[in-house]
Design goal:
By secondary structure, this protein is mainly α. The chain has 13 helices and two strands, in the order H-E-E-H-H-H-H-H-H-H-H-H-H-H-H. A two-stranded antiparallel sheet has the order 1-2.
Length: 309
């Protein structure tokens, strides 16, 4: 075969390869292009815009703004109010995550047994998770009412006076943790239940034959095999508690009296009495990088303790 023919065949193959690539890219842009545009428009553009706003001294609604660099960040990390936000966020996150996961695991262990009415019980446990946070908070507002609430009547029956849930900052924080845990433990229970049902029964039976008691079986067999589920819930619950609790916090404590977690502080600073939009944007950026750092640490170090079967 002459070199001219070989050269022509090579050119044909190159053109065919380019046509295939062009077709593949066209199909990719056709199907993925709209999603990419939506992600750029509603995620990355607001993210970078917010980073720019965080460098401004800007009041919400004002037509003018002053460039101040990193002063908003410095003010947040050095002010007493900023330190208080970190303290409240840490307490709320720890209480919400641990409470939801521990109670969810206990409920899942019960629902995993052969008991009558367990299907209805599973539905009842999970149903608060799908309810509106505002609706849940309004109901619990009535329950926690110190004078006419259901809880005050129950405590009065035992001769105990109701705490000032809305006036005392510590009780306010404890109150919203209780409500958040009640609403979200069904999610943890269902995920834990799925993890329990995925554990091979022959391992449990083998441990039973070896005369291992219920606690020993749980510690040595069940819990190690649940570590992927625990890791998943730990990551998601930390993210949810720091970002998705706003509706409960806003409805039960509108002014953030002792419950100003970082997500609530963003709202209070921008849309509350201060209207410090630039300062609020700086807190939002801090929240973004905090969540990014926490998730990266969990993926880097905590996942090492996970036993994948």
């Amino acid at each position: 075969m002459s070199s001219a023919v070989q050269t022509e065949q090579a050119r044909v193959r190159v053109r065919a390869h380019r046509r295939r690539q062009s077709k593949n890219w066209s199909l990719f842009l056709l199907f993925a292009g709209p999603n990419i545009l939506l992600i750029l428009a509603f995620i990355y553009y607001p993210l970078f815009s917010n980073m720019y706003y965080s460098t401004l001294d800007w009041r919400l609604g004002s037509s003018s703004a002053t460039q101040i660099g990193l002063e908003n960040y410095a003010a947040f990390f050095t002010s007493d109010s900023g330190l208080e936000v970190w303290r409240v966020t840490a307490i709320f996150t720890a209480g919400a995550v641990l409470g939801s996961m521990i109670l969810g695991l206990l409920i899942a262990l019960v629902l995993n047994k052969k008991i009558p009415g367990k299907t209805a019980a599973r539905t009842a446990v999970f149903s608060p998770y799908v309810l509106s946070g505002v609706g849940v908070a309004m109901v619990w507002n009535f329950i926690f009412d110190p004078t006419r609430g259901g809880l005050s009547h129950i405590l009065g029956f035992f001769g105990v006076s109701s705490p000032e849930w809305y006036l005392n900052e510590d009780w306010s924080l404890f109150m919203v943790i209780i409500v958040y845990v009640w609403k979200n433990l069904g999610y943890c229970a269902v995920v834990f239940l799925a993890g329990l049902q995925s554990i091979p029964k022959d391992l449990i039976e083998a441990a039973t034959i070896d005369r291992a008691g219920p606690i020993r079986r749980f510690v040595s067999v069940t819990l190690p095999l649940l570590t992927p589920t625990v890791f998943f819930l730990l990551v998601t619950n930390i993210l949810f508690s720091m970002t998705n609790a706003f509706d409960i916090l806003r409805t039960m404590t509108p002014t953030g009296h002792g419950t100003n977690t970082i997500i609530f502080e963003i709202y209070l600073q921008s849309f509350g009495a201060y209207q410090r939009a630039g300062y609020s944007a700086a807190i939002a950026v801090v929240l973004f990088f905090t969540l990014f750092f926490i998730t990266a640490v969990q993926l880097r170090f905590v996942e090492r303790k996970v036993h994948y079967s």
